[in-house]
Amino acid sequence: MKIALTYNLKKLDSSKPADYFSEFDSEETVNAIASAIRNKGHSVELVDAGSSLLLSYFKKTSVDLVFNIAEGKSGKFRESEIPAMLEYLKIPYTGSNTFSLALALNKAFTKRLLNAENIPTPAFQIFKTGKEELDSGLRFPLIAKPNCEGSAKGIASKNVVNGKAELIKVIGELKDSYSQDILVEEFIDGRELTVGILENGKIKVLPILEIDFSGCAQSGEYFYSWRMKEFQGDEKQGLLPKFHCPAPLDKETEERVKEAAIKTHRAVGCFDISRTDIRLDKNNIPYVLEINPLPGLNPNESNFPLMAYAAGMKYDDLIEAILLSAAERKGLN
């Protein structure tokens, strides 16, 4: 097959906020995916999704399938930009459709759907102005997050608060920085898990990954904040989480976690691949925080490949599995 790989590339730009390009991919990731596609006998062309010539390229160039990892430029529906264009041009692509990508990027919309499907998720409230009265049913500690960001943008340890005045201050700071609704939800003080789902004819749940922050005390970070995600492995900052895959869970808890991830994947309408972030409370109840239909695929740093490796897959096999799932859905096999 002739494959086009669409991506947004990380850049160094001191004029932008530190987390501005966090959702975008590195050259290492783009090159690794391209190499895997070639190794499996396909041809591949790299297509920068930020190029002004993008639409022209796809109008002039015939490809069998697009391997899409592009996050889009801006806006609360940005992850749907490339799929929407491809659907208009009737070009098949990997991953979820425009609706699912837009839904998953909106944390509050996703949580409303989870509630409707009886999938546990932390109780929450949306602040549009920052002046709303706090829901009396919410229990501290609470955590505040930008509602439509990925890669933990805008999330820091200081966002976990134990009082109303502190909460209002954090909400104001987030609104000033991100100019969007702010999600406030109950902070689940427990184990952090992430669950990868890979479709290739049928849904396959990869081994559950636990991220252990017990060794990160000196950093002041104790969950997946932006700084933890961006600089994990940095010894000087004390950002040294440990990864346990498969996560050491009893069988009953493992099945509950997997069930929550499968139900979330299906409820949001994901295709081919997704990663669901979960926290276990003290009673081992899995609370879904969010789902990512475009999980990172860096072969050395991203969580999804790590889970695939634990399942006995090689990186090239993972990339081909995503391709083949999309090809089968589109009738290209």
What features would you describe in this structure?
- This protein is of the alpha+beta class and 333 residues long.
- It folds into three domains: 2-95, 3-Layer(aba) Sandwich (Rossmann fold), CATH 3.40.50.20; 123-186, Dna Ligase, domain 1 (2-Layer Sandwich), CATH 3.30.1490.20; 191-313, 2-Layer Sandwich (D-amino Acid Aminotransferase, Chain A, domain 1), CATH 3.30.470.20.
- Helix content is 32%, strand content 20%.
- It has helices spanning 27-39, 54-60, 81-88, 98-105, 107-116, 164-178, 226-231, 251-268, 303-310, 315-329; strands spanning 2-7, 43-48, 65-68, 124-127, 142-146, 160-161, 182-186, 191-199, 203-205, 209-212, 242-244, 273-280, 286-292.
- The strands form three sheets. Strands 8, 9, 10, 11, 12 and 13 form a six-stranded antiparallel beta sheet that branches. A four-stranded antiparallel beta sheet has the order 4-7-5-6, sandwiched between helices.
- Helix 1 (27-39) crosses helix 10.
- The protein starts with a strand and ends with a helix.
- The relative contact order is 0.16.
- The mean pLDDT is 94.
Which properties best describe this structure?
333 residues; alpha+beta; Rossmann fold; Dna Ligase, domain 1; D-amino Acid Aminotransferase, Chain A, domain 1; 3 domains; six-stranded antiparallel beta sheet; four-stranded antiparallel beta sheet; 10 helices; globular
